[in-house]
Structure formats: C-alpha cells, structure tokens
Amino acid sequence: MKTKTKFIALAVACAFAAPTAATAQTRPRERAANQVEKRQNRRQAVDDALDTARLTKLLADFDAARNANSLPAMQSVDSRLRRMMGEEAREGRRELRQDSREVRRSRRERNRAAPGRSRRDDRRDLRDDRRDRRAEAASMARRNAIRGQLAPLYGRFDPSSMTRKRGLIVELIGLARQEQRQNRRERREDRRERREDRRARRR
C-alpha cells in the first residue's frame, strides 16, 4: 500500500512538473522574440514618421510646381512619387510579414498557456495581433489600389490629371498618419504583453 501511495504521489508531481519545465524552456525564446519585436516596432515607427514627412514635403513641392506651371518641377515630383510608391509597396509587404509572424507567435503562446489568467491574456493578445494584421492588409490593399490609379497619370499635367494626382497624394498622407496611430497602439500592446510575461515569470 505504501509503495502504491508513493507511486501515485510521484505521478502527480511529474504531471505538474512537466508543464513547468516546458514553460521554463519556452521563456528564453519568448524573451528573445520580445526583444526582436521591440526593435522591429521601433524601426517601423521611424519608417512611418519618415513616410509621413516625405509625402507632406512631396505635396508641398507638387503645389509649388503646379502654381509655378513649371514642367521640369512637375516631372521631378512625378519621378519622386513613382519611386516612393515602389518603396511603399516593399515596406508594406515587410510589415505584413511581421504582423503575420506576431500572429503565429501569439497563437503558440496561447496554446502553451496554462488555464486561467495567463490563457485569457494570451487569447486577448492573439485577437489584438489578428486585428493589427487585418488593418495592415487593408492599408496595403488601398496603397496598391492608389498605385494602380496613379500609373496612367504619370507624365500627364493637364488640370484634370493634376487634380486627381493631388487627391491621391493627400489620401496617401492620410494612410501614413493612420499607420503611425496604428503603430503607437501596437507598441502599447507590446509593452502590456511584456509586463504580463514578467508577471508570469514571477508566479
């Protein structure tokens, strides 16, 4: 009877120790992933601020060239705009890949989490990351649509084409500012996730 009792106690201890050991092994990976994500968010914040500043400057130069009726200046703005649209497309694809990685990571953390507060936190983090990915995908789709609308307008400087072009630049500035707001929200969520991870490690 005593041997059987010892066996049961050992089995129960192992059952509780196994998740703890697995969690301990995953924590260094989670901390490393947090640091990578933090650096990526900082770079994205800088990129978004630069995009907004560059587009705002482009709009000012567009208006100056249009008011001066300067063909060389208008051609220069066209060339810069075309180049910026290509850069925006590459940057959007990179940011969408980053958001997809964050979704996969949050899904793994949710699946590993023990029942209770930790799992609830991880489910919320996954919902937030999925929302961010949807927002980035929608923003990229709209920028791609604008790039398509701009394509036949390059090299055309009649009043109608210039008015249409200006409206699309203004919309791009709005999208860039929206990206900045979204990035600030993501950074707040990431800080909250890191605080939750630290609390989980202390438990």
Write the topology of this structure.
Layout: H1 2-68, H2 71-112, H3 117-150, H4 159-202
Helix pairs in contact: 1-2, 1-4, 2-3, 3-4
What's the gist of this structure?
The protein has helices at 2-68, 71-112, 117-150, 159-202.
The number of strands is 0
Using only CA atoms, what is the Rg? 25 Å
Uncertain parts: 4-19
Rough outline: elongated
Distance between the termini: 35 Å
Overall helicity: over 70%
Mean of residue pLDDT? 78
Secondary-structure content class: mainly alpha
* Structure annotation, total helices: 4
The run of helices and strands is HHHH
Q: What share of residues are in beta strands?
A: under 5%
Largest sheet: none
Can you tell me the number of structural domains? Answer: 1
Description:
The protein starts with a helix and ends with a helix. Helix 1 runs antiparallel to helix 2 and helix 2 packs antiparallel against helix 3. It is mainly α and 203 residues long. The chain has one domain (28-202). It has 4 helices and no strands. Helix content is 92%, strand content 0%. The radius of gyration is 25 Å and the shape is elongated. The longest helix has 67 residues, at 2-68.
